[in-house]
């Protein structure tokens, strides 16, 4: 037997209801990209003080040119980023870290 054509149900306002895809769902032809949430390395290790004398710990947070890497790149929390900046500046002042590299 042939099926009868479905009729659309009218909503409370008298208009037809639209079915929408769930928010954040995949779209056809688009690749999904999931960014891994960055976690503060110092919070994980439960560091309560960032020592300016530990240069090997500070080195990954400084670029080749001497700039301090921002939070969005390193994933450190705001508290530890402030402590980190202070420690790097102190290490620079007593010549443990360079202010900038020569080109």
For the secondary structure, the number of strands is 0
* 3D shape: rod-shaped
Strand content: under 5%
* Number of helices, where a helix is a run of at least 4 consecutive DSSP H or I residues: 4
The parts where pLDDT drops under 50 for at least 5 residues are: none
Radius of gyration: 27 Å
Query: Secondary-structure element sequence?
Result: HHHH
For the sheet with most strands, the description reads:
none
Mean pLDDT across all amino acids: 83
Give the helix proportion (percent range): 25-40%
In whole angstroms, the N-to-C terminal distance is: 82 Å
Structural class: mainly alpha
Features:
103 residues, mainly alpha, 4 helices
Polypeptide structure, described:
- By secondary structure, the chain is mostly helical.
- The chain has four helices and no strands.
- The protein is rod-shaped, with a radius of gyration of 27 Å.
